[in-house]
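WARN retry 2 of 3 for item q-0093 after timeout on previous attempt; input resubmitted unchanged.
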Amino acid sequence: MINKIDCFLPYQDSKSSENIIRHLGGSRVVRHIYLMIADKELEDTEAPQGCSFIHVCNILSSATMHRIAKECAADYALCILKLTDITMGTHAIERMARVADDTDAALLYSDHYSVENGNTIKHPAIEYQEGSIRDDFDFGSVVMINGEALREYARTEECANYLSAGWYDLRLWLSRWGSIIHLNEILYTEKELDLRASGERQFDYVNPKNRNSQIEMEQVATKHLEAIGALVDTSAYERPDFNEQEFEIEASVVIPVFNREKTICNAVDSALSQQTNFRYNVIVVDNHSTDATTELLCKYHDNKKLVHIIPDNTGLGIGGCWNVAIDDSRCGRFAIQLDSDDLYSSPYTLQRIVDAFHEQNAAMIIGAYRMCDFNLNTLPPGIIDHREWTENNGCNNALRINGLGAPRAFFTPLARQIRFPDTSYGEDYAMGLSFSRHYRIGRIYDELYLCRRWGGNSDAALSIDRVNANNFYKDSLRTIEIAARKKMNSINARTYGQNGNGRIYRKNAVDEQRTESGIKRFLTRQLETWKDANMRFAALQDVKTRTVGDNAFWTLQFNPARIGSTAANIDRKAIEKRKCFLCAENRPKEQITRNLPGGFELLVNPYPILPEHFTIPSLDHKPQRIIDNFHEITEILRLFPELTVFYNGPKCGASAPDHCHFQAVSTGLLPLQKEWRRLYGSIEWIVGRNEVNGIGLIKDYPIPAYLIRSDDTDNANRLFCMLYNAMPMQIDDEEPMMNIVAWKEEEFTIVVVFPRRRHRPLCYYANGKEQHLISPGALDMSGLVITPIEEDYNTLTEKDVESIFNEIAISKVQETTINAKLTDIALMKEKGEENKNEHTEPLVSVGIVSGKEIRFYLHKPFTAKGENIEGEQIAGISDGGILWNGECYRELTFTPSDPDATFSISDVVIGIDFHWERKETQTFMGALRLVVESGCICAINDLPVESYITSVIASEMKATASLELLKAHAVISRSWLLAQMEKRRNNEGKDGGFFTIQKNADCLIRWHDGGDHTIFDVCADDHCQRYQGITKADNPNVEKAVNETKGQVLTYDGKICDTRFGKCCGGATEEFQYCWEDVQKPYLVSVEDPFCNTSDKKILSQVLNDYDLETTDFYRWTVELSQKEITELVSSRLNMNIGKIKDLIPLKTGKSGRISLLSIVGTEKTVNIGKELEIRRTLSHSHLYSSAFTIEKKGMDAEGLPTAFILHGSGWGHGVGLCQIGAAVMGEKGYKYDEILKFYYRDSEITTLYN
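OK item q-0093 returned
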């Protein structure tokens, strides 16, 4: 081994370098010595013998690395990376060269001695791992680099130009080129120049003076992660669904503690003093303290916010204590860190963190903290805010640094899924890495937290062995995380593709990392908390299956737990006698729920068929019907594409036919799906032959089955309606018999419909050996036949199975009829005739009245249950059903036999909760439906939209109104209605559904909206639009206005406008978000209204009906409430005692002056209420005219409380959109209806939907 090494070392002067040069020059393996100098003047001096000068600006720069590569002609380069005194051990260089040769190392480093303050101590290094990518990895000052690798780096990375990160870039590149070898031997001694404590050095990367070099380091680390396939693409982040599980507590402060008698009370008091607008608690996990900690915590026993847990396990680390806390049923939706040494900086820390979760859509939040001593004096480096974190790359840069910040807060369901490693160091860092792989980590850069260093704290100064142990552990965490990210990127590369239209789609949803699924977390949590259900799911592992037949398509499953469903008696009397097991009040207390958009909720099915089995019932108890709920299938698949959704019709396997519901299981497991590629090739397309959106018969399926393939919800709904209308209807049934199975495939929704003619096969009712208890549902129709009786499982043959399913499926004649009907529809479409019906006038369902008894009169014949009915009728509630003519029904529909047939309903309440509330008998056209909802009968009127609009305008306006005013009102009434119908049926705003109440102990924010209705489109009262049937519709002027604007709506950006309107704006209209949900609508801006201040009785009578005219002063009004009166009002309206009223303080006000959020300050407590209608309701026995008022306190009693409050207000109603009185004035002044609309709805357009 001769001339194997070129040496490169920093040089300052001959005296300081004399020893190392002599040692290197005396070695036979050294070819040449290069002295790296920063001072150019030294180049003019003579270099020591056997040495050459090379000029460098920064030892660690890219330029230096390239210069070393350029000069290195030997097999290896020995580099000294620090300007300090170095003494090489005897034969150390030869030893390094030998090991480098033997291992073919790309880079080799060793242990050394360190001289610190005159003392020589061992300084071992740690093993290099793939996760050792932090830029401060301690190689020591002496490394040996493979010469070939060095030269290749210079060729391939010639563009690298880092001032501080050149060495970092090189050594990461070397880790990709070959092995980095640690020689666990002490081979040299160096003088340590940085003598700061470890607790101070570890924060160099957040020091602002190092920012430029840190930016370079981040660039290098990002390039490396991309090169090894471990870079996280933040654009693919999942958005956490904070409603995926229900929590009684919004947030929990988690404090693990062991022997902190000096600090624990400070920490607990800091947590308990937090001020929030939500419920929170403090969970202290006392890890078997042996000092006075436990005793001190017991003194908080009476504080209901404190949860004191002493775990069963005595060997837990801090991470294990965290797992105990988050697993506890009392843990909140968000779990927020507070160490037992530390404090929150203010009483608002908790509120800020929880707000940040929602504002940043993050699954984890990290704040900033200040280092301080026990007396809260700031210690170096002061505030640690981690501003090196960037939105797009923080998750990748996190692998380069050793910490993420504090306090740390986690979305609890994800924390339960990932779980903390049971260690007392790095457990939080491990969680941060795992979270950042799939989810955004939000940041708060303001100080939230005080990290106290004190005598009992062990983090300030650590030994080299402790530092090494910590660094090695975190490197191992990074190694694990890099492997996980590589795997994730590899899976994503296989999972996603691009179709011919350039659209990205999921190739195979089953291949995805299922552990990242929110629905999987929901299932896991349910099984952790429900022992019986967990046992049944576990028992699925022992469930037997076998296939039958030559083609082995049918799979039998022996599942005795399903006997309850298979043997369920679903006749009317049996259903009426039992309690509905899908209604919330009848479910086991252990069963958790998750609300879904559209009025449904997610439950774990406690009697599973497959490893993931869910039931999805409607929130309301309403019959099992598909036609009004089919869109929910596509919505469920949008939320959970990893599931297969199925529907069992009322007589098609549904054991709860009285309660609308779907079910869902893991996708890809049914025989139908396993054979799908083959089956799809046999599709005979009937509608939509382009195979993108269409209906086809699956020819090779054992029984008649129809495919609906679609690329969006609208097409799916349209195609399903076609098939639904083509299917045969059994006598006395309310919908065709069918089962449905649906799943996602690429970007398409696949829906398979199995039409049926029989509920159960004859063998179900047979006796003896002829009996087989098979009651097919959607999964059975899909090839998975459930047999709860073992004898059936053992004895059924292929012929038996085929006979059963041929008996319950439709006949060939029925199949031919369906095909013919569908073909007719397809031909109509080809001729362009179908388009004529696409924009026809829709029907609207209006909720009229609800009660225990409905009295109504049919003036002409109507049909119901196959009979002609006429005259006086009474329907009453009985055992949860509708008692009519001596029979009990879940739902009744009375359809007019004649287009002019009408019906009247007695005791219809109008002006509900308003001062003009009264009852009337009203007459209606169209169909009458009676439906059970919430223990009452609800009467619903189904009629064409234009008939409804005519009635609304006649109810809202007088015949004397100008034609232009009536036309304007017709357009906005129609627009509002169709927008509400679209919102309800297509579920606009799918992340939140129709969320109209936010409530906790100190805050009530509520608004009323048409979207709150679930079984009809709109109600007949003022909360939607005033509708009184044909009672007041005899108005030729109104009919003219409606006819001349037929089908016209206001649109903005191609969508129907939500055209709110009110009586009197009071001089300025309001913006939408101050009265309803926090969504700005560009066309509903606040406008100054110069028209609505009028006392002209002729104009007022156009807008105000007789009982409305009872209200006189509404443009400007005054209400005085005595102390006694307002105290009683607030107490009764809010159903809480806040004491006597000290003050009313507007917290949020809209552009028109309407109060959107009002603080009511009582002697017992303060409560905030909103929005405007809730404020009006709370401060009045009916409703205040509006929330646009100022507050005057009158007098002062002996307690120092106001004797009365005087409200000076303006306007009548919410004030959003069109002001009816202002519009009436405009009509009288000659404005056209389109001008009136443009004035109130800015930048909107009039669009005709149908003629």
